[in-house]
Amino acid sequence: MSHSSMFANFGDYEQKANDSSSIEHRADAEKTVGRNPHPDFPKVQASRPDWRQEESWHLTQTVEPNWKLGRGGNDGGESLKKKHVQIDPYEDGRPAIFNYKLLISAIIPRPIGLVSTRSESGRSTNLAPFSYTQLINHDPPLFIVGFAGGFSNAKDTLTNLTATKECTINIISEHFLEAANATSINTPHGISEWALSGLTPAPCTEVKCSRVKEAVFSVEGKLFSTQEFESRATPGQKTGVLAIVEGTRFWVREDALNEDRNLIDPAILRPMSRLGGIMYGRTVEGCELLRPDFDEKQREKETDGLIMEKVEAQ
Question: Could you report the per-residue pLDDT of 281-296, keeping only the tens digit for each?
Answer without folding.
Answer: 999 999 999 999 999 9
